[in-house]
Design brief:
Blueprint (H helix, E strand, L loop, with lengths): L1 H5 L2 E4 L9 E6 L2 E4 L2 H13 L10 H10 L1 H4 L2 H4 L17 E5 L2 E6 L2 E5 L1 H4 L3 E2 L20 H9 L4 H15 L10 E6 L12 H9 L4 E5 L20 E5 L11 H5 L1 E4 L7 E4 L5 E5 L9 H5 L1 E6 L9 H5 L9 H21 L8 H12 L1 H13 L5 E2 H11 L9 H14 L2 E7 L6 E7 L5
Parallel strand pairs: 3-7, 8-13, 8-14, 9-10, 10-13
Antiparallel strand pairs: 1-2, 2-3, 4-5, 5-6, 11-12, 15-17, 16-17
Helix pairs in contact: 8-13, 14-15, 14-17
Length: about 450
């Protein structure tokens, strides 16, 4: 075990109070998760590079001895005798982010971006986080020459507020610091009101962009089950973003509350499960052609939704616009502009936080349709259009809705109808007044449009 320790192999206890550990190898300022197989390979390579003969034994003879006794030498019982060691890892803090490249480390804060050598930073870096590119930091580049910025403008509908919002969201998700006051997931949705026309708007390309700066674990949301064993088995200590893509319609968003606000439990086959607490856990991102349920304040506080405009679709792709695939066919200058755009987004986030933008009407209607059915939104359109100068009994509204759709009470409960009324009024800018009628004590409602100042 001393030989392995001297060559950088040791136990890394993610939580010093826990008995759960991971094997790692640390060398030359970098660290990687290690496995029994990687230790065997290291020992094999080391033996094969020994002198032709030493201590009356050849490397091949020694290798045969090691291979014959490999179960003893490399079993879990032996590995556990490795010493533990703390790692002074490079991590983001509340007001700065770090991006390690081949030729140095870029530090981003609210003043911009600056390059440092690995020696100047003096921290240990996950090898898997190093971006294989020689970066030239230049935030004064012309954004209009950057293809990815053009892509962002198109998915934002050329709207300046949306562009600023998407830049700030990009900065938030790339910043690896987890602020306890901001425990929310990023949701990439679509502006289109008709879910049948969804898809192809560029959400996958945006997620792919993140993978070029951060360790992203991409999960197929169509087949993902949160309660399934090993749901996050591919998540590592170096994973910084979990992207759950193309989530199913009516996904149980509440089921994700704990991983958004508390942390992630990683369970791998034949290994003890490891809990990564909130401050060190990956940020969570969803993509969907539908809307994520957000009924109630709890859900709203945990979501930051961006709606992709329908500029791109199955008939007109980014490849059609640019004449080639994004990322795959870029030269060094285009990559450099892309990375500097991402630095700009992170710096923008540090300066302004996540910009607030009003949810579009289409996404609001999708939300109501998803949670309260097509029949309700059709009824709502008629009800809200006529308005109401007088209070109307809730019972009459409810029974009118049932009659319009040939529903029985068992088809649509009063409780659900009441929630649908309240949620719709809030989302569409109406005042919904309610009170108890003095005579009959029944619940009555009056709806009116809220006056807004442009």
């Amino acid at each position: 075990s001393q030989f392995l320790y001297d060559n950088g192999f040791h136990l890394y206890f993610y939580d010093a109070k826990s008995s759960i550990f991971r094997m790692v190898r640390q060398y030359d300022g970098f660290v990687n998760e290690a496995t029994t197989e990687s230790i065997k390979k290291f020992v094999k390579d080391y033996i094969q590079n020994l002198p032709a003969k030493f201590d009356s034994i050849t490397p091949n003879e020694l290798l045969e001895v090691v291979m014959t006794g490999s179960d003893s030498y490399f079993g879990n019982g032996f590995i556990e005798f490795l010493d533990r060691k703390k790692i002074d890892l490079l991590v983001d803090n509340s007001d700065s982010a770090y991006f390690p490249f081949t030729n140095g480390i870029v530090k981003v804060d609210n003043k911009g971006a600056k390059m440092y050598s690995y020696g100047e930073v003096g921290k240990v870096v996950w090898q898997t986080q190093v971006i294989d590119f020689n970066i030239d930091v230049d935030l004064d580049f012309d954004e209009d020459l950057c293809e990815f910025y053009t892509f962002m403008k198109k998915v934002c509908g050329e709207d300046l507020e949306n562009i600023e919002y998407l830049l700030s969201l990009t900065g938030y998700i790339l910043h690896q610091f987890k602020d306890p006051a901001r425990p929310f997931a990023v949701v990439l949705a679509e502006e289109t009101e008709d879910e049948k026309n969804g898809g192809g708007t560029g959400k996958g390309i945006f997620v792919k962009a993140l993978t070029h700066l951060s360790n992203v674990e991409r999960i197929d949301g169509k087949n993902f089950k949160l309660d399934k064993n090993f749901a996050f088995q591919r998540v590592g200590l170096d994973t910084k973003i979990i992207a759950i893509e193309d989530v199913r319609k009516n996904v149980d968003f509440e089921g994700f509350y704990s991983i958004i606000t508390e942390g992630v439990t990683v369970e791998k086959k034949n290994k003890d499960e490891l809990f990564i607490p909130y401050k060190d856990s990956p940020k969570i991102l969803f993509t969907t052609n539908y809307t994520m349920p957000s009924v109630g304040n709890h859900a709203k506080r945990r979501q930051r939704v961006f709606e992709f405009a329908s500029y791109f679709n199955s008939d007109f792709t980014p490849e059609d616009l640019f004449g080639h695939k994004l990322f795959d066919d870029w030269d060094k200058d285009e990559w450099n502009r892309f990375y500097n755009l991402m630095f700009l987004a992170v710096s923008y986030y540090f300066s302004f936080g996540i910009k607030k933008v009003e949810q579009g009407l289409k996404i609001k209607r999708k939300h109501i349709r998803l949670n309260f059915t097509e029949e309700f939104i059709d009824w709502w359109d008629l009800y809200s259009e006529k308005g109401s100068t007088n209070f109307e009994p809730f019972k009459e509204l409810y029974e009118g809705f049932l009659k319009q759709n040939d529903f029985d009470k068992k088809d649509y409960s009063q409780k659900r109808f009441k929630r649908a009324l309240e949620e719709s009024a809030e989302k569409f800018g109406f005042s919904l007044e309610s009170k108890r009628d003095g005579g009959s004590r029944q619940l009555v409602y009056k709806i009116s449009q809220i006056d807004t100042i442009n």
